[in-house]
Structures are given as structure tokens and as C-alpha cells.
Amino acid sequence: MLLATSLNVFWDKEMSVSLEEGLRRCAEAGFEGVDFNFVDYDRSMLERMVGRLDSDAYARSLRKRAEELGLRFVQAHGPIFDKFGDPQVVQPLVEMSHESLRWAAAVGAPWIVFEPETASGAFDEAHYEENMQRNLAFFRDLLRTAEEVGIGIAIENVSDALARPGARRRYYSVPTELIDLVDRLNHPLIGICWDVGHAHLQRLDQRQALRALGKRLVATHIQDNDGVKDWHMLPYCGDVDWRSVVAGLRDIGYTGAFCYETHRSIRFVPDHLRDDLLRYAVRLGKHLLSLA
User: How far apart are CA 247 and CA 219, in angstroms?
Assistant: First the structure.
């Protein structure tokens, strides 16, 4: 497994750390790969820096810089939004989702992560199937661009703890539902991203869940929490059973990125301390990978 981190550990509203500087500092800390997160580095942020999100020249320059530093973009994270909401609000975000696929492909990321959606309803069998069909339609639409640019879509497990106010739960928080969605899509450019923190919120047995996913697993979000809120902390800052996680990855022969999504442990400290935390994160990641 390759140790990676999301670049969003450096994100702030002022964009005080450029993407190029973030790449350099991740490489110097000892990471082998990085994740580009469109949830934070959205269109407005990128326009402030480089003019256009879909600037192929800029994307290629980032890819080249990463390679010079011995890094590679191992995955990306697409926009998060209510995919079944007001069409006037949703459509521009759908277009941005397609654009994020093109951007991720240009920087060399083989997979981009998207969350599935849950609309309100009775949460009975008919409601499950209605949500399934709407998710299938959304991801099949994205697959048009995925096929065009040759990048895979990794569908992320969510959690009932993250359900919208008034909703009983979120579908695709357990392996059976996520597997059902991925298997119905039945496409070589569709896989699963396992968010360890979301699984912990769901109180799942991580090893058993990962065994169920098997070869469908293509990406990871490695993060810790207290089982109550989605804190996105470094391992051992919460109470995730990390031996169970690593054992599950070992059991299925996972060889992809072991990718931190731990911005809350790093982003909010003074900038001159972030490099120390990044170096610690690398040491921590190497320890976890040694368990495999």
C-alpha cells in the first residue's frame, strides 16, 4: 500500500498555501501520494489562483511538479451536494462533477470519489429501490465522462449518523447496500472507497466489512473519530480499531492508496507546526502499514 494524504490539510479561505507548496511539503514529510479534494478546492478557490478549474495546462503542471517531487496523485474527491435537490441548484454542481473528472484525469489521479445520495421517504423496500434507481442514473451519467477521460469512480460508504435532519438514515452506509449499487452498475470504472471514519460512526466491524467489499475496494479515506461525530482526525485520536482495519485490507490483498483524510488534525494548527504533524502522520502511517 502507498501512503498518501489529501492536500486539503493546507486549505484555508485565503489560500495562503499554494497547491505547489502543499505538494512540496507533503513530499518533504515523506508521503508518496496525494489526494485532490474538490469539496474544499472548489471552483471559486481555484479561480482565485489560476483562472479556470478545467485548465489542462495548470493540471499538467501540477502533475509534473508532483512527479518531480516523487509524488503522484492517487485519487481525488468530487463535489458533495444534494444530488436529488432543486434542479436549478443541482445542475451546475453536476456539471462541476463532470469537470472534476476531467481535472482529476489531467493530474493523473486514477480514481475520484463521490458519495451516493438518499432522498427522504418511507425507508421501505419501494423507497430503497427508488433511491437505487436515482443513484444508478446519477452515476451512469458521470460514467460518460469517466469513459471519455479514462478515470474510475469510487463510490464512498456514508453513515446514518450523517443523515440530513429529519431523515431516519442514509442508504449505502452498510456493505450490502454499497455492494448492491456497485454491482448493478457493473462497470470496470466503478469501485468503492472505504471511509474508515464513516464505518466507525456506523459501528461496523471493519474487518468483516472490508472482506465483504473484496476486490471492489479501490480507494480509502483513512481517518479517526469518537464514534459520534465525523472528526477526520489522525489514527489513534479516536477509538477506531486500527488492527481490524489493517487486517481487513490485508485479507483482501488491497494494494491501493492508504490515504489520509485527516484535515482536522493538521489544517487548524499554526502553519509553522503543520510540517511537524505531517512528518508524524507519515511515521504513524508506516506503523499502521507495518501491521499488514
Answer: 16
